[in-house]
Amino acid sequence: MAEVRHTRSHAIAGVAMGAGAALAMAGTLFPVFRVSGGSVPPELWSALGLGLDDGAVSLAGSFRSYVVLTAVWAGVMGIALVLTRVKYVGPVWRVAALIGLSAAAFVAFVMWVLVLDPLSVVGRPTWFTADAPLLVSGLRGATLEAGLGLWLLTVGTCVGVLAALVPAFHTHRVVKTHNSSRGLEPGWYPAPNSRRRTRYWDGEKWTVGA
Predict the structure, then answer these.
(1) Per-position b or e across 25-55, b if 16+ CB within 10 A of its CB
(2) For residue range 14-55, what is the model confidence (pLDDT) as tens digits?
(3) Where is the DUF2510 domain (predicted)?
(4) Which SS3 state, helix, strand or coil, does residue 166 take?
(5) How would you classify residue 51: left for phi > 0, otherwise alpha for psi between -120 and 50, otherwise beta?
(6) What is the chain's Cα-based Rg?
(7) Tell me: the pLDDT tens digits for 126-162?
(8) 194 has pLDDT over 60
(9) Phi–psi pair at 63, nearest 5 degrees
(10) Under a CB-based contact definition with an 8 Å cutoff, are residues 152 and 23 in contact?
């Protein structure tokens, strides 16, 4: 006798979430932007959590570690989402992943603001107070262009966040069970191995519908 069993799978969301986290981590390995013009020395870039190397500016030090850790956290939550089979646990992993991804997304947002309007970032009175005047002066006349690292970080966080919002999908599979129902008269009976309360036995097999 064949039996239809229904399950919920978070595999698509989990795999996409892990892929987004991997892209975000890869973004820390490449320059987030390139700078031309201006006169900001390398030691002042470090005040922004960045490192300058031949015109290429990358995430550095604790800033890079922060992004990597949040991306790793989201990736682990993606793996947990793929493996989970317990009802109502999936949303917990999704929310936890969103927390990590939102932190990485904030970094990407700040980097884009820095590329598009650097003086609005370093000129804030509560940010980088000690070095703000030197940074503002050094960035005047500078041109910043987004690099591969920033694009990877942006795409990765977007993919991860969207994946966390993808709902679980229902699957069903046909399994063989023992033929203990042989001999039953056609009629409605308590459903064997099913979420449904009752199933109809037609004399040879259980019907799918309730």
Answers:
(1) bbbbebbbbbbeeeebeeebbebbbbbbeee
(2) 899 999 999 999 999 999 988 887 777 777 777 777 888 888
(3) 186-207
(4) coil
(5) beta
(6) 27
(7) 555 566 677 777 777 778 889 999 999 999 999 999 9
(8) no
(9) -65, -45
(10) yes
Candidates 156, 143, 114, 140; CA nearest to 28 is 156
Residue 84's SS3 state is coil
Q: Give the whole-angstrom CA distance, residue 157 versus residue 32.
A: 14
For the entire predicted model, the pTM comes to: 0.70
**CB-based contact 21:72 (threshold 8 Å):** yes
If DSSP codes are grouped into helix, strand and coil, which group holds residue 190?
strand
What residue type is 140 in one-letter code? R
Phi, psi of 8 (to 5 degrees): -115, 135
Please answer whether residues 98 and 161 qualify as being in contact, where contact means their C-beta atoms are separated by less than 8 angstroms: yes
Number of separate helices (H) and strands (E) present in the chain: 7, 8
Phi, psi of 100 (to 5 degrees): -65, -45
